[in-house]
């Protein structure tokens, strides 16, 4: 016999993941206020009681999507820090690799990206946290001898977040450029101003 509210034979984690994916698409397309739980469950082909097995409310699922985005973006940003001892010739490719990771995340999860970077009431805080982590990365990389010491890394970090922000909407999501192309362009522009 099926658990109350869940489709017979359905796997709980799959149902939960499906609800998250469909909710992300609905929020990204219609915004928070126009998204209805009834539409989410209809598209997921589950009942409203199934929704409430996993999420307390529409706000709860939205907040979980925001948190998923923030955590993944934070991991990608931390992972982009350059390790010590890199050959100078490897810098552009290694820096581009970190940016490519971020742009690929936005490419593979556009609905989640729209929620976390644009629709969320905490989007500005998310961008500020990303800029702070990038600045921390850059300061570490200055200490490692990769970049000039006389550059305000706060400006560089905030500029990078602004570039990612605008290029995602104007170039990546419109299909005008790929993640790899955008990353290489940013590196070409920024690295020339930072290199020793």
Automatic annotation (TrEMBL):
Organism annotation: Domibacillus enclensis
Pfam families in alphabetical order: TetR_N
InterPro entries, A to Z: Homeodomain-like_sf, HTH-type_Tx_Regulator, HTH_TetR, Tet_transcr_reg_TetR-rel_C_sf
Gene3D superfamilies, A to Z: Homeodomain-like, Tetracycline Repressor, domain 2
Keyword annotations from UniProtKB, A to Z: DNA-binding, Repressor
Single GO MF annotation: DNA binding
Annotated ranges, domain HTH tetR-type: 13-73
Domain of life according to the entry: Bacteria
Name of the protein in its database record: TetR family transcriptional regulator
Portion annotated as DNA-binding: 36-55
Residues spanning the signal sequence: none
